[in-house]
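User: Could you go from structure to sequence for me? I need the amino acid at each position, not a summary. Structure tokens:
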């Protein structure tokens, strides 16, 4: 893996006036290839790709690792109801339009994978290839409940040791082999420093998506949207799904359904990892490299 970590800060403005940020990693010299758009999960940010992005850029592809609205260096939205995949997808399409990018390889972790599915529906021609990292057209309810139990909170964090302890407490089930240095590095991705104190680097309003709507007596909650038709659109391009072996978001049953529905899809499980692989694991990297060789 390349040790290069150089990137430029790229900003763009959404249709509703928010200023959003992406890390822009220049491609190494070589033939022109479709760039790569990396999209993080619900409470994460572009720093999740700080190892993967330079690795891909070293192979001759430009990489844009985005901070979706409400995360990282991107503006927060005053309306929590705007924290939904269709708006995130529109924001990312605005970025590629501003940069004159017609097609890209999309790598989406968790929520980022759902955003990729929406982009496939909104503008299928924009997707040259795709990687779904530990997510599919359905989400296992037990994993959704686990994430809902902590999103928007964090408790008192007095310093970076507390931040690392928080990172371990929330994520140890997914990364049982991590040690103290790993958890400190993880904390540096999750938190930013304000006033000398680490704070989670996302708007607590993103938790609004977990709030159940108030129902009238006798009224039933609406069913979750059916994303399988979006998955059908996505599999018309080179497609890779990566699953953490112990993931509680992409269950074995959902993964098997995806493999049956998309027999040409590449698939790999990362041993000993839950939700979600960081994509610097050897198994994940080898699969991503394989997809990128097949992509335009």
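Assistant: Here is the amino acid at each position, in order:
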């Amino acid at each position: 893996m390349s040790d290069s970590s150089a990137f430029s800060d790229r900003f763009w403005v959404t249709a509703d006036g928010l200023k959003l940020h992406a890390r822009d990693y220049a491609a190494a010299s070589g033939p022109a290839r479709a760039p790569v758009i990396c999209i993080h999960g619900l409470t994460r940010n572009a720093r999740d790709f700080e190892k993967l992005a330079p690795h891909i850029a070293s192979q001759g592809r430009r990489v844009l690792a985005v901070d979706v609205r409400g995360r990282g260096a991107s503006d927060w939205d005053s309306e929590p109801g705007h924290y939904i995949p269709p708006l995130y997808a529109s924001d990312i399409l605005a970025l590629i339009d501003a940069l004159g990018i017609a097609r890209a390889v999309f790598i989406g972790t968790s929520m980022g994978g759902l955003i990729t599915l929406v982009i496939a529906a909104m503008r299928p021609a924009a997707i040259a290839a795709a990687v779904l990292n530990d997510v599919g057209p359905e989400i296992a309810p037990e994993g959704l409940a686990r994430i809902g139990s902590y999103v928007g909170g964090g408790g008192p964090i007095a310093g970076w040791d507390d931040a690392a302890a928080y990172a371990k407490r929330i994520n140890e089930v997914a990364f049982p082999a991590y040690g103290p240095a790993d958890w400190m590095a993880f904390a540096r991705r999750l938190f930013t420093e304000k006033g000398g104190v680490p704070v989670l680097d996302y708007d607590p309003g993103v938790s609004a998506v977990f709030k159940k709507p108030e129902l009238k007596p006798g009224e039933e909650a609406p069913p979750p949207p059916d994303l399988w038709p979006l998955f059908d659109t996505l599999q018309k391009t080179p497609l890779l799904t990566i699953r953490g072996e112990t993931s509680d978001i992409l269950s074995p049953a959902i993964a098997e359904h995806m493999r049956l529905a998309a027999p040409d899809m590449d698939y790999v499980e990362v041993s000993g990892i839950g939700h979600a692989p960081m994509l610097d694991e050897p198994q994940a990297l080898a699969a991503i490299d394989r997809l990128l060789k097949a992509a335009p």
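One structural detail worth keeping in mind: The chain has a mean pLDDT of 93.
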